[in-house]
Amino acid sequence: MLIVFGVSCAAVAVSTAGAVLTIGGLSDFLEMVQMMSESFVRGGLHWGDLVSLTFLMFLSWTLIIMTGFLAVILARTILIRSRFAGLLAEKKLSV
C-alpha cells in the first residue's frame, strides 16, 4: 500500500508540473515557491504543521483504501448468500 501511495504522489507531481507548464508558466510557479520559502523562514509556516498535514493526508488516503477493501471482503465472504449482497457486489442470477 505504501508503494501505491508513493506512485500516486509521483503521478500528482507529474500532473502538477504539467499544469504549471501549460497554464501558469514556470516563472509564476517559482515566484510562488519563493514566497512560500520566505514565509517559512520568517516563521509563517512551521515544520510541525507541514508534517501534521502530510500525515493527515496519508491517514485519510489509507482510510479510504481500507474502507474499499472492507466492502469487497464483506461482499465476497460474509454477505455472499445474503439478500443484502446486491448492495455491495454484483450478484449472479441463475436462469
Topology summary:
Elements: H1 2-24, H2 26-42, H3 47-78, H4 85-88
Helix content: over 70%
Distance between the terminal alpha carbons, to the nearest Å? 40 Å
Q: For the report, how would you describe the main beta sheet?
A: none
Beta-strand percentage? Answer: under 5%
Q: For the CA atoms, what is the radius of gyration?
A: 22 Å
Overall geometric form: elongated
Low-confidence stretches: none
Number of helical elements: 4
Residue-averaged pLDDT, rounded? Answer: 77
The number of distinct β-strands equals: 0
Structural class: mainly alpha
Order of helices and strands: HHHH
What does this structure look like?
The protein is elongated. The mean pLDDT is 77. The protein is built from four helices and no strands. 80% of the residues lie in helices and 0% in strands.
Give me a quick take on this structure.
The chain contains 4 helices and no strands. The chain is mainly alpha-helical.
Structural descriptors:
95 residues, 0% strand, mainly alpha
